[in-house]
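Researcher: We're teaching a course module on how sequence relates to structure. For the next exercise, students receive a sequence and then see the predicted structure as tokens, so they can try to spot secondary structure elements on their own. Here is the exercise chain.
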Amino acid sequence: LLSNGGMIRRHPMAVTLAINGALKYFKHDNPSPIDFFFSLDWLGSSGWLEGANVNGISLITSVTTPPEILDRFEDYYHFVGMTGCKTDGELGAGLTGTDSAMHLAWRMGAKRIVLVGQDFACRYGLYHWDEPLSPEIAADRKFYVAPDIGGGVTMTDYQLDRNMGLVRAAAMWCREDGVEVVNATEGGILDWNRKTLASVYEELEAEHG
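Model: And here is the predicted structure for the students to work with:
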């Protein structure tokens, strides 16, 4: 996100969706390039929204999300559950918001899903783009060094590695159903159909103008 978040923009043939703390990256953008904020775990959303600009952004969240979060947004949409996926209102639960957001995109008929800021690693000593890897976080995790898709090595842990595997599996299922998943993240450990974000927009312009 730090590397190419500034390139993200709205496009009439694309929908931009932010998860977790990514929305705060765009707090000075007016209008924001983000269409939707996807809140899988509303318990963490108050921190993720702190200082964020939500003007013109709609919320997608659980039916259990409390009013103090819903009231921040002009519009919001609910999914009704996270297990079974037996109805149109349910989403798959893959232990990470990225996995469920990909399922949402698939159910909405997306032809291409582009991942940005999904490094699943602690690059530059950061746990999130705006959160340094603290001793408190490190004390609860088992970290190791892994090859970085951008070159060299990076630090990750087994939980991030697990989440990466879930997203990679979701990408495989999307591919089998004819939906392209692109990883436009510049580094990290998710080695999947890599493209630059600039080339993704170029393809979009060539296809739709």
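Model: If you want an answer key for the exercise: The chain has a mean pLDDT of 86. The helical segments are 45-49, 67-70, 97-107, 135-139, 158-176, 197-208.
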